[in-house]
Amino acid sequence: MKIFDPHIHMTSRTTADYSAMSEAGIIAIVEPAFWLGQPRTNAGTFIDYFNSLLGWERFRASQFGIRHFCTIALNPKEANSPKLADEVIDLLPRYLQKEGVVAVGEIGYDDQTAAEEKYFACQLEIALEFDLPVLVHTPHRDKKNGTVRSIDLIRDVGFPETRVLIDHNTEETLPLVLDTGCWAGHSIYPNTKMSEARMAALVKQYGSDRIIINSAADWGISDPLKVPKTVATMRAVSIPEEDIKKIVWDNPTSFFSQSGNLDLQDIKQRPSINQTQFYEGSSVLRGGQTPLAET
Amino acid sequence: MKQFLIEILRARVSEEGWMWFEKALQSASAPVQANKLMGSYTGASRKLGKHALLLNDLEKKDLHSLNPELPLDHWGIDEAARALLLLSLSHLSPDEYVELVLQCYEYGDSREQQSWLRALSLLPHCEQFLETAMGACRTNIIPLFESIACENPYPSHYFPELNFNHMVLKSLFNGVAVTRIIGLESRFNQELSRMADDYVSEREAAGREVPPDIWLALAPRIPQERLARVHSYLRHESPNHRYWAAVGLGHTHDAASRSELEKQRKIEAEQNVIGAMDASLAKMVQ
């Protein structure tokens, strides 16, 4: 089965992860711009971060037969940093039209402060202007309230709901999102967020329409194989194969194809691997390793 | 307080270490050499070590009369020295002071930032560092988070309600005991209770454990109709839940909660839970 992981922070992961993901059937991913665990001290570091999402990371993924897309935004946490927020917003127009950018994201609420709301609304407007979908992060704390507020803001701005993916849903927030026209993402993440078994139970209850799952793997204790593992769990509880395919392929590809930067035909083919290639003089291989080259 | 810290430090460092520190203090006197000062701020760990201060009983008594809200026992020797360096810059104009002190934070590694946050409530113009202190709560480095959230009077004195509430929730989220938050009781509020109540619902819906000390943040300002769930945790199989539900209810003046506590008190077997129930019942009478 072809698998799409629509939310994974590969910058924090190793080539062993890429190999295992490729082996498990993952052939395309979306890496949303988020915070690095360590607060950034100036806006200039965002230039390098965005460039690496569009450059080196995209290349690294390709070396394992995985198509790499990304979303670009000022993340909710750093929206609270007055000395860099406006400057990062000013950078966005330079990046949003680049190849591989499939949404504005992650945007949304973290602590649900006034600054977060301001930059959330502002980036919804930017997404309208650039005709892009948005990826909306929902907060870890006070999640239900944060989800309600996110939906209210999307409606206030008049952003088309079919172009909104609201992420990190739980049992309590999923019905709220499904009552709108938005798509509902779920992060299958060890210990926090959502588990495989709970996800399968949600699919049994709510079906597969507008349902999306991801690993959200990052620098925390996380697992880049959570999407294929959830596929196995869904099969084990007899969820029909066509529903599973819809959740791990049709839904995420349809959603992000609204950007015009993801071609539904092209993406069906796993890109062939050619590890003899270089990116600005760098290869993912190190001394003594034999490049894999498919014909 | 500055004099107290100097005495504490003097009693704990070697002759060599003290000489280094006196020289470091010179870099803080006018005219300040910023790079030297920041170098000393960083170098304190290497030169003085990181052993905990571990105050003796007399020192603890002195500290309590000077500043009852600021425990120092767990501070490192290097951290006391860093606090003293920042306190020795008060001859600067407010603007210069804030700029230089902020640089010590921004260029700091995790331990330097921890030292900085721990000393924050002692610093002149410390209200100017509110953004930085609130930003520090966004870290996922738990020891760094604890250095602002725990054993630190700054948040309860300066944080707006929203940020204070999120700090409490984040503590619960990360298994950091909320009793370590100085001044929590002075900042109980309805919104905090509402957020904690929603968090319990979320955990229950996910089939996951609820942090037992959440009842201390939840019960005090929750609407009466939401108290039934707290009462149910008075009967929980875990003594931890029974204990904290009893402590939390002690901050209400609710008659139904009082009779629930009295009822459970009669059948409670655990000594520490009985103690908490008695303390709460006594408080509710007042």
List SSEs of chain B in N-to-C order. HHHHHHHHHHHHHHHHH
Q: What kind of sheet is the major sheet of chain A?
A: 8 strands, parallel
CATH architecture of chain A: Alpha-Beta Barrel
Q: Strand share of the residues of chain B?
A: under 5%
Quickly give the structural class of chain A.
alpha/beta
> Could you state the CATH homologous superfamily of chain A?
Metal-dependent hydrolases
The number of helices of chain A is 10
Please write the CATH class name of chain A: Alpha Beta
Strand content of chain A: 5-15%
The low-pLDDT segments of chain A are none
Largest sheet of chain B: none
Assembly annotation: heterodimer
How many extended strands of chain B?
Answer: 0
Alpha carbon gyration radius of chain B: 22 Å
**Distance between the amino and carboxyl termini of chain A:** 22 Å
Largest interface: A-B, 23 and 21 residues
Q: Give the mean pLDDT of chain B.
A: 95
**DSSP strand tally of chain A:** 8
> Poorly predicted ranges of chain B (pLDDT <50, ≥5 residues)?
none
Distance between the termini of chain B: 36 Å
